[in-house]
Amino acid sequence: MLNYFLKGEAGTRLRFMGMLLSAMLVLLSVFTLTQKGLNFGLDFTGGYLTEFTTSQSVELKELQSFIAKNHNGEFELTAQGNSHFQLREAPSVSTTANSLDWQSAVTQNDDINAQVLSSAYIGSQVGDELFDQGCLAMFAAMIAVMIYLAVRFEWRLAVGSVVALVHDLILVLGLFSLLQIEFNLTVLASLLAIIGYSLNDSIIVGDRVRELLRVQSNNVLSPATIINNAIKSTLTRTLITSGTTLATVASVWLLAGAPLQGFAIALFTGIVVGTFSSICIAATLPELLGLSAKNYEVKVDAHTQTLLDMP
């Protein structure tokens, strides 16, 4: 079915419409990031992290309501298991008196009968250092990717792959900003994984476009037709790879619990938009930049051409 829509002018129109949609989503993501920012987790902001267990299984919502009655500020409660919980408090509300109030309430309640396992404070200086180191790692990965693409591809295909990569990262960050999902170290690690996955998709399509351009050095087919053919020839492999990866990530999202939820959401979104951008950006933008079979013609000097023309 998809191969049918990728034929001829219909396929070209779909690719350009997809690129227009991507541009609109990027603008929306940038606007959301500038207005709402990211909801940085305790890894970056600092604050108290308390882990405790209960003597019996307690519903997360019921426990959260009970703690809210004995807590004077905002907090985040996550379940690590049926009777294992983790409570995070921002630095502005994580005072000693406030912590003692809710801890005394859950430990002295007969229905909950909680036992505090650990309570640690993470300073903002540590969070700033983690954020700086994480951003440095992502920046280094981007530089390495750009160098690799510059060596491997003709510059138009390389630019398309880099723009698709930036597009994927901005959309993932925009989603986290829009929904105010907690941005922590695991999410930052998922962005590095998205860089690799998005690059892989773009390289597969770019390699196929390059091969077909070299074959069509006589310019019989237009660049748009060659790009459509390249996408059709790699589409099945792309969908199978993305589908199996999405199934794995969805399992982590649904079964691994709250600690890995942000990681799974970021990866799931990155795989979807990465597959989309490899078709609508990585393969379409080079066409707008003037990619043609002439870019891959083998140039020979006058002496070699004379030898080739000899009977």
Automatic annotation (TrEMBL):
Alphabetically ordered keywords of this record: Cell membrane, Membrane, Protein transport, Translocation, Transmembrane, Transmembrane helix, Transport
Location of this chain's protein in the cell: Cell membrane
GO biological process: intracellular protein transmembrane transport; protein targeting; protein transport by the Sec complex
Cellular component per GO, a single term: plasma membrane
Highest taxon of the lineage: Bacteria
SUPFAM superfamilies: Multidrug efflux transporter AcrB transmembrane domain (SSF82866)
Transmembrane segments: 12-33, 130-150, 157-179, 238-256, 262-285
Subunit record text: Forms a complex with SecD. Part of the essential Sec protein translocation apparatus which comprises SecA, SecYEG and auxiliary proteins SecDF-YajC and YidC.
Record function comment: Part of the Sec protein translocase complex. Interacts with the SecYEG preprotein conducting channel. SecDF uses the proton motive force (PMF) to complete protein translocation after the ATP-dependent function of SecA.
UniProt protein name: Protein-export membrane protein SecF
Organism from which the protein derives: Pseudoalteromonas arctica
Name of the gene: secF
